[in-house]
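Whiteboard transcription, Tuesday session. T.W. wrote the structure tokens on the left side:
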């Protein structure tokens, strides 16, 4: 069965003005956006601080928190009230209490899975989460190539929790987005292929059209 797949633009920046510019450009053509936040504990560099993050009221915002200690950011996340908050399985603290605090506030929870992490080792997180994010790029960097071997994790996660929403993050572009869309994903997050395009709206629509195509194999 081919699922309905959403292309979700991703914002990653350490600059206030660039953040505003990306929000304004994306707001023209979509309402669901992933916002990447890093405090520098899990990535080589920090992004714009979470206290400077905002988005239009009509957005369904997914916050992707790249931190070893996401509970330190919980108070601010609750104030921002995103639709979904994604935490990393590789954090150096138990995520379940933070997941529960988010759920109590009506915020959906997600677990991000780096290439080095085997889904079977984080089953309690997958069982609890509403969303699983298969990460296949370079954490904290846009434009890195996709590690398509990470697609092997999709059926593993789906078998553990059939109803979970599964997302992909890392290297998605016009050359691979159709294959990804036919791999039992629900969401494909796209960074540089949209953000760096001369016309982001046109790039977005091209990706949406591409995932609807059928070929000899797909």
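and on the right, the sequence the group agreed on:
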């Amino acid at each position: 069965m081919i699922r309905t797949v959403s292309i979700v633009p991703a914002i990653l920046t350490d600059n206030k003005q660039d953040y505003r510019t990306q929000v304004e450009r994306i707001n023209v053509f979509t309402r669901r956006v992933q916002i990447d936040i890093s405090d520098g504990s899990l990535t080589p560099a920090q992004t714009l601080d979470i206290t400077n993050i905002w988005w239009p009221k009509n957005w369904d915002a997914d916050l992707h928190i790249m931190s070893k200690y996401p509970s330190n950011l919980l108070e601010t996340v609750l104030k921002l009230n995103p639709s979904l908050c994604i935490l990393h399985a590789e954090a150096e603290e138990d995520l379940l209490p933070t997941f529960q605090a988010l759920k109590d506030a009506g915020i959906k929870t997600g677990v991000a899975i780096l290439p080095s992490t085997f889904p079977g080792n984080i089953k309690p997180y997958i069982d609890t989460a509403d969303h699983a994010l298969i990460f296949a790029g370079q954490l904290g960097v846009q434009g890195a190539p996709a590690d398509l071997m990470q697609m092997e994790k999709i059926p593993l996660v789906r078998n553990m929790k059939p109803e979970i929403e599964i997302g992909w993050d890392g290297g998605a572009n016009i050359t691979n987005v159709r294959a990804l869309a036919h791999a039992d994903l629900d969401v494909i997050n796209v960074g540089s292929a949209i953000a760096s395009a001369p016309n982001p709206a046109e790039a977005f629509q091209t990706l949406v059209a591409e995932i609807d195509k059928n070929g000899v194999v797909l």
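Someone added at the bottom: The radius of gyration is 16 Å.
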